[in-house]
From TrEMBL:
Listed InterPro entries: ArsR-like_HTH, HTH_ArsR_DNA-bd_dom, HTH_Metal-responsive_Reg, WH-like_DNA-bd_sf, WH_DNA-bd_sf
Matches recorded under Pfam families: HTH_5 (PF01022)
Domain of life: Bacteria
GO BP annotations listed: response to cadmium ion; response to lead ion
Organism of provenance: Flaviflexus salsibiostraticola
Protein name: ArsR family transcriptional regulator
One Gene Ontology MF term: cadmium ion sensor activity
Residues covered by the HTH arsR-type domain: 12-106
Length: 123
């Protein structure tokens, strides 16, 4: 079982800061956030993500590389294809909880990105 308190004590402040920055970088982009939301529902192939999200395969692949480099998703080779999935069940649960907690905190909070079409402000 994961012992969060013990892990937290063993990690340096700079390690935790690095993780926070990687998560922030990953989620700051709306395309990466859309990919993450899709992967929270289960593993997917880049071609399926591209089709489902209305994006080019190369665009999705570039964003998946970023998410993989940030340690948020895993690439699993399956013959000639690569399947992407969340890096672990704890991360999936944490991201789902983060979204729910943020929505519960203030659903009326405006999106700060004027170009954002997902939140309805820029639309």
């Amino acid at each position: 079982m994961l012992n969060i308190e013990a892990d937290r004590g063993a990690r340096s402040r700079s390690e935790r800061l690095d993780v926070m920055q990687r998560l922030g970088r990953a989620m700051a982009d709306s395309t990466r956030s859309r990919i993450l939301l899709t992967l929270l529902d289960g593993p997917a192939y880049p071609s399926d993500l591209a089709h489902d999200l209305g994006l080019s395969r190369s665009n999705v692949s570039n964003h998946l590389a970023c998410l993989r480099d940030c340690g948020i998703v895993l690439a699993v080779s399956e013959g000639r294809q690569t399947r992407y999935e969340m890096a672990g069940g704890h991360l999936t649960q944490a991201l789902l909880a983060l979204v729910d907690i943020t929505l519960d905190a203030d659903e009326s909070a405006p999106c700060l990105d004027p170009e954002c079409s997902d939140c309805g402000v820029g639309a």
